[in-house]
Design goal:
GO biological process, one term: protein transport
CATH architecture: Beta Complex
Largest sheet: 7 strands, antiparallel
Helix content: under 10%
Structural class: mainly beta
Protein name: DSS4
Number of domains: 1
Number of strands: 10
Distance between the termini: 23 Å
CATH class: Mainly Beta
Radius of gyration: 15 Å
CATH topology: Metal Binding Protein, Guanine Nucleotide Exchange Factor, Chain A
Bound molecules: zinc ion
Organism: Candida glabrata (strain ATCC 2001 / BCRC 20586 / JCM 3761 / NBRC 0622 / NRRL Y-65 / CBS 138) (Yeast)
Mean pLDDT: 88
GO molecular function: guanyl-nucleotide exchange factor activity; zinc ion binding
Shape: globular
Number of helices: 1
Keywords: Guanine-nucleotide releasing factor, Protein transport, Transport
Length: 150
Amino acid sequence: MASTGKVRKARCQFTECASSLISVPAVDSKTTDRLIYFPGAIMEKYKIMETREGADAQKEYEFLVVPEFWDFDNIGVSRDLCQVTEDRDNAEFKFEWDGHTWELIHCQRYLACAECDRGPIGLLCEVQDANDHSSTRKICLLSIASVDCK
Ligand SMILES: [Zn+2]
């Protein structure tokens, strides 16, 4: 298999922690559809932590789709349920992955660093097939802007 670009490593952004979270495909990788982009509104809506400046609604934010927990090296899941209520008509956050178009319909819990518990750095959520509303999956979405990734 030909390699396409360097694999990155996502770590906790707090240097005194820097716990390893997961391997992230390179931005230019052609072999993955696990890197997706959401409008800046997602950062505000779900109160996702960022590295630098406040959420920019004009900007698109990179997320990694993580279908299984054990894909992470380390991850923490909040005990708190997500404050944002279920939204079955929410086509606001749509993305292409695994040959389907998905809509984020229900955030259940937040992802945080397993070591220092800082976050949220992502969401544990339910997504629905935009073309078949009976088909849902539970996935993790890791916000690349919320971690140190290089
Ligand atoms: Zn940490």
